[in-house]
Amino acid sequence: NAGVTQTPKFRILKIGQSMTLQCTQDMNHNYMYWYRQDPGMGLKLIYYSVGAGITDKGEVPNGYNVSRSTTEDFPLRLELAAPSQTSVYFCASSYRAQETQYFGPGTRLLVL
Amino acid sequence: QKEVEQDPGPLSVPEGAIVSLNCTYSNSAFQYFMWYRQYSRKGPELLMYTYSSGNKEDGRFTAQVDKSSKYISLFIRDSQPSDSATYLCAMGGAYNTDKLIFGTGTRLQVFP
Fold it and tell me: Which residues of B touch A56 (CB under 8 A)?
């Protein structure tokens, strides 16, 4: 049982490039979340999903896109990367809403 | 006013000290209260989970919830250098939302 896995661990992007951050969970959780964490700023919710085919915006969705075609996978797409998107990105999942979330190890993204 | 307030620290204590970490919140509808521990360059991991009011103890850790004061605490007894991490509180159970609300985290340093 691997839990929540994320790839890549670290990436450097140039301004204007695009990339997809991958997230997979093997716990059969319905709910999945993407957060970004900036130093001293806590976790900010970008997008979340309550099940395959259903996604919704969080607190800071601009510049990002998501899809959820399967229960296991919840990729986060960055289009036209900007320096403001330099951050650590965490994916999380939970069985029910508002209950314990299990986090992945994170992806460090640097946009130059 | 933020929904959840948490002192960012850093809090620096000697080994063996009793540590008290706190969060206040404004939404009286919260019912689930959690503490996550996050080591440097890692994802948050669940430390304690409490439903509604009261205390919960797990080894050296005690979580307290005072719903009348909208205040939650995490106590660490006999603190160890391995407890050095950032501690985030999280809350859920409010109506009409699928999201947990996280505090910004308190950085704790336990020195030998």
Answer: 98
